[in-house]
Each structure stands twice: as C-alpha cells, then as structure tokens.
Design brief:
2 copies of one chain form a homodimer.
Chain A: E1 3-6, E2 11-14, E3 23-27, H1 33-40, H2 45-56, E4 61-64, H3 73-87, E5 92-95, H4 99-108, E6 114-119, H5 122-135, E7 138-142, H6 153-169, E8 177-180, H7 192-206, E9 210-212, H8 225-239, E10 245-246, H9 248-261, H10 269-283
Parallel strand pairs in A: 3-4, 3-10, 4-5, 5-6, 6-7, 7-8, 8-9
Antiparallel strand pairs in A: 1-2
Chain lengths: 284, 284
C-alpha cells in the first residue's frame, strides 16, 4: 500500500518497503512560547526558520499547526502554509481540528497535502472527510472517538476500521489514509506504550494501511526523555509505523539506523552518508 | 516459561513478564588486548575488574570467556570462574566450545550456571547436552549447525526446535534452554537484522522459550555503532529477547527504557531510579 503526497515540485511516497518518512512536528505552538508569541502577531519568521531547520535535519514532510487559544486559525493557518511553501519544497501536513481553517489552508496549498486529522467521532468524520475528498488530500485518522482514546488495542483497531470504511464509502482510497494509534504518557500508565504497539500490530495485520504516530508524548514527565523516545520509536517502526511525527533533530539517527536494520538501506549508504554529514556538522 | 539460574547466594529468573536480564559480555578476550595479555599470564586481576565494573553498571549475569589461540582453557576457565565468584555474587554464564574446559569450570562453580553454548551440530549436541544434564545447568542454544548460520528465519527456528527436542529427550526441561537466534553484521548483509528479528518472532511463537542474543555484532564496520546497537536492541527485546548479552555500560539505558515501555516497570520506579543514579555518577 502506497500513500503519495506532493508539494508543487516534490513527491513523497510512504510504503512498508520504503525508507521511513519523517514528518517534522515542530511548527506547533504548544509549549513553544517564542513561536506562540510570533504567531499571535501574525509574524511568520519563526515558522519559516522552523521549516528550514527541520528540512535541514532530515524531515520529508512538515506538520503545520498554529492552534492556540487566542489565535484566529482561519486567518493564520493559510498564512503559515504559504510561509512554509516559500522557504521549503517538501509536502505539508495541515494540522487543525477546525474545518474552516483546514479549508482556507487547502485553498492556498500547492499539491496534494496530508490533513491532520480525522477521528472516529461522528462530528469529525462528517466535518473532515468531505474536505479530504473535495481536495484529493491524504488524511491521518486518529484511533479515538466520542468516548476518548480506547484503553485496549482491539478497540483502537475497531476505530481505525470505522475511519477506513467511512472514508472508502465517500470514495477516498484506502491508500490515502494513515492511521495514528496514539500513545499516552507511560509515566501515567505503564501499559500505555505496550497497548499502542499492540494496536499498531493489529492495524498492520487487519487493515494494511500505512501508519504515522505522534511519538514524543510517550516520555512526558520522565527523565532523559530523548532516550525513552528513541527506544519507543525503534519499537514502533519495527512494528509497522512508517511515517512518524517527530522532532527530526532527535529522531533522525534512530530512524536512519532503523531503516538499515529493517533492510531498507542498500549497502548502508544512507546511514553512512548521514553519519558523515553529522560528523562534518559537528566539526563546524 | 521461567529460566532460573543461581550463584551461591543469588537467584536470577528470566521470564517474558519480568524485567529484562542483562548478561554482561565483557569478560571475553576477543578484541581486548589488555585482557588477552593478562589471561596469557594467568593473571586474573583484569577479569575481576571487568566483573565488578559490569555489575556496577547493571549486569545481572556475567558471561565468562577466556578463549584465545594460545591459552589452556581447561586450566584458565575454572580460574576465571573462581576469580569472578570472589568479587561478585551474580550467577555466571560459562562460555566455551571446549567440553573439557566447561567441565572443569562447572566443577568449581557454586550454584546453577548458564552454559554458553550448544548448537545444532551433531558433535556439539553430543558433547555439551550431557554436561548440562549432569550439572543441572541451563543452556544457550545457538541457531546454527554443520552448514553454518542458516540464511532464513524458518531454518533458524528449525535448528532451535532440534536443540529443544534433543535436550528434552535427555531430560533437560525446556525452561532451562535459552535460544540465541544470532545476528550477523548488517554492513555485510542488509537483511541480516531483519532475518534475526523474524527468527526471534518464530521462536517465541513456536517454542515459547526465553531468548538471549549476542547483539553487538550487528553494527560491525559501521559508524556510530552504539546507536545501531541501541536501536537493534530495542527492536529485539520488543520482539521477544529477554536476556541479551551486551556491554551493560552502553545497553543499560536502552534496556531500562524498554522495560518501562513494555509494561514491566511499575510506576516507572526502576527507570527513574536508574536515571538518578547515572546523574549522580556523572556529577562525580
């Protein structure tokens, strides 16, 4: 199963036998005071910087999220999409729960984007899936619904199945759906990561779709978060996630090694090239 | 399935629902000039130091290997076992292909050791399994035979099955067998790690035995070996390895995070305690 997204000039394909696709998570004001402040003033300079940095550090797709309590997303999201398109040529993942903001951003996007996200709630399915169909986009489906995030892997697979069926009923092809099995902080619930890994396995076996994962939450509240994130990312991609949403600066070395170990890096060329580039960058 | 090994005063249990057991790999002269030189002189001081260091860094069991071209293993292996028993109280993994050396070491060992190793070769099975039975030891079975290391996961599972059947026929209980699915350098063969992960899955599903893995070879010839080893270790323990043979100094932080993520560390106590200990040690 192949998911293809495009910018005006670049195509990125997500598929189980291809190298992992890195979706950069950093254009998101949650917990980032400097970005939040500049967005509140309609200033896109920080968005541009984060876009350029993430692509330089290995991102293949950039998530663009401007959501904060005080901002007008309908005005800001298309501004941010345009700003990122000005400085990078990678495809974008347009991230908002607000259908009007999504529509405004889709109107200025050049290519075939990812939309982040729909979930199993009736209201979400009715609001987002028609936009996905209308704009010919690809979509991230979150395994949660009106009752929140299900406690068991089986229930999450059931929500994923519902999303896929509802999308297909509207004529959205299955290959344009990425499922995110969601992970909660393991500090609060020690079975959280295990449940997510089981759900990933279930989605892979039963639906065969490509998968993303916002993986950094897993380490919330723990010491040495980067270590926990790296170990979880290695487990998640070995289980079936092939387009994780991560901070590329931290995740890239794990992902390059994972591709090599999963047999997707002939002659270890990508890994060796990556290590040389990092060594050069560290020398100055 | 529970594998229990013992020193004179300490018991270690390997089981799928328990925290990962770390077998320290460093008492092995291969590639270690200083250890090789001291062993050649019958000097056990370096062996003692490596034993103490590894236990301080988190090893639960220590592998003891003195094999080198010029040494008399029958004399040296029991000396090394005694030296390690003098300075640590963890159970040992007695490591030699030489049956006479194994027997001499078993004679001085206090407790129930692991023996490393038997493989699927007829000569190996006949030489080693009777010793395992006679001394009531546990045994590591390597998935290789007269034709070398099989290229496919299925063939490795078949060798593991043969070892388990031959051991059981001698009255060695299945829970006293750890299987090592073996991993070759991924720099030489980019499918090497993937094949091993598939074999681990197969052994878990079909035999249900506990598993070890000498995991550090996978990164031979690559830059940033520690990164490749950590990512592979995370994948291997998520797939079913629960007593890897590793350098505890490098592997411990990956293993502590893996236990937490696999739901084996209630309230994240072990991980948090470990991080605090490392932080204190780094401060001086």
């Amino acid at each position: 199963m192949q998911t293809t997204v495009r910018s005006a000039s670049k195509e990125v394909t997500i598929a189980p036998d291809r190298p992992i696709v890195i979706i950069g998570e950093r254009i998101n004001p949650t917990g980032k005071k400097r970005l939040a402040a500049s967005l509140a003033e309609g200033d896109m300079s920080r968005v541009r910087t984060l876009a350029e940095q993430q692509v330089a550090n290995g991102a293949h797709i950039l998530d663009v999220n401007v959501g904060a309590a005080s901002v007008d997303e309908v005005a800001l999201l298309p501004m941010a999409v345009k700003a990122v398109q000005e400085v990078t040529d990678v495809p974008l993942c347009i991230d908002s729960p607000n259908a009007a903001a999504l529509k405004a951003a889709l109107d200025v996007y050049e290519g075939k984007p990812l939309i982040n996200s729909v979930n199993g709630e009736e209201a979400s399915l009715k609001r987002v899936l028609p936009l996905v169909k209308e704009y010919g986009a690809a979509i991230i489906g979150l395994t949660m619904d009106d009752s929140g995030i299900p406690a068991t892997a089986e229930e999450r697979v059931a929500v994923a199945t519902k999303i896929v069926e509802r999308a297909e009923a509207l004529g959205i092809p299955r290959e344009d759906i990425l499922i995110d099995c969601l992970v909660l902080a393991v500090s609060a619930d020690q079975t959280a990561a295990k449940t997510t890994l089981e759900a990933i396995q279930g989605v892979r076996d039963q639906l065969g779709v490509n998968m993303t994962l916002g993986a950094s939450n897993v380490s919330f509240g723990l010491p040495d978060r980067e270590n926990v994130n790296a170990v979880f990312l290695a487990m998640a991609v070995a289980t079936g996630v092939n387009a994780p949403i991560v901070n590329p600066t931290h995740a890239c070395k794990t992902i390059m090694a994972a591709d090599l170990l999963l047999g997707r890096d002939e002659f270890a060329m990508n890994y060796v090239t990556y290590c040389r580039r990092i060594a050069r960058a560290q020398k100055g």
